[in-house]
Request: fold
Amino acid sequence: MTESTAMKMNVIVVKDRQEGGQRGYQIFKAAYDQGATVYGLATGSTPITTYDALVASDLDFSQMTSVNLDEYVGLAPDHAQSYHYFMQHHLFDQKPFAHSYVPNGLNADAADEMARYDNPIDLQILGLGQNGHIGFNEPGTDPKLGTHKVELTESTIQANARFFDNADEVPRYAYSMGIASIMKSHQILLEAYGEEKADAVKAMIEGPVTPDLPASYLQNHGNVTVILDEGAASKLNLK
Ligand code: GLP
Reply:
């Protein structure tokens, strides 16, 4: 494992996502030991090894709050591809929280759904889209937006089609915390694994801060740790 500080982010390069999950768990544990009570959670394949390590640990979240980044509009919480279902399966069934907020994809009233999202977050975990999205903040998203309804880009629909029978079944809209919501978190942990993320990782850390690459706004945060495997780190100019 090597560590370095590129720009203002603390970058940790690990061998693989297993080691990344252990490292992610250590960051959760450190926040927990320092009194964090509100945890911002993400879905996708990336955080699974961290959730596995949390499940295997003795950390007790039963007095804590979790807030999830995003959810597809139109999927019921018990739909197998909903992010609600994912969280139940990978974390909440084994490690219940006192309160878990996941956007309700069946609530057609976006304003009502957004209003549930106002908890200050102590530690936010993030994955990274191949196009640099965080949550479902696609390229071009206004960074001042809080939680909002998003129209998914074709590249995200194609990238996420692997979880559905075909691309036509991927919902076209999602509710997502905005970049402004994410930036209010006290601490951020972003994980990215695989060479297909290498371009987005490089632009996020070494490129300009731009709406074209939503994750680049994290350069302005000041308390971000990035865990990468060697593939995701392969285009960085690490010193
Ligand atoms: C989705 C989610 C993101 C996630 C991204 C990457 O689009 N909305 O929160 O970070 O996919 O997914 P994966 O971790 O499977 O690569």
In short: The chain has a mean pLDDT of 93. The domain at 2-229 is CATH 3.40.50.1360 (Rossmann fold). The two ends are 14 Å apart (CA to CA).
